[in-house]
Amino acid sequence: MKVIKCSHCGIKNRVEPQRLEERQANCGKCGMALDPSKALDEIVSRKPLIATDNNLQQIINDAGDIPLLVDCWAEWCGPCRMIAPVLDQLAAESDGRYLIAKLNVDENVRTAARFNIRSIPSLLVFKKGELVDRIVGAQPKQAIAAVLARAA
Asked: Domain 49-151, what fold?
């Protein structure tokens, strides 16, 4: 799945690669033909993105309509290390349906304070720039996937 920003209206569209090859992809909002060169490959990541105090707002904005899960974690946190492989798996399986980012709370205290992170791991789910859900504590993969599915 690729994400292409419409040159006409600016909306981000998820498009199957075969539709791009056949040049049959149109914007879901305005109907204009999409330009494959406008693909936002850096947004559709198969690995968790690294979020910081300096770039988290940009990651949130770039995600747009795509749900974004931000894992607030720390190196010394056992439960954080326990769910890290689960989040890596979810990122690899995302296929453009959602994004995963990781924010080290020890290195990014402003953001941790901004979102009132009191316990870790804390998973924040954003959509359209807004915080729409929060999971506190280690959860199984199915529970995290269900929250992402609700946000989609």
From this structure: Glutaredoxin (3.40.30)
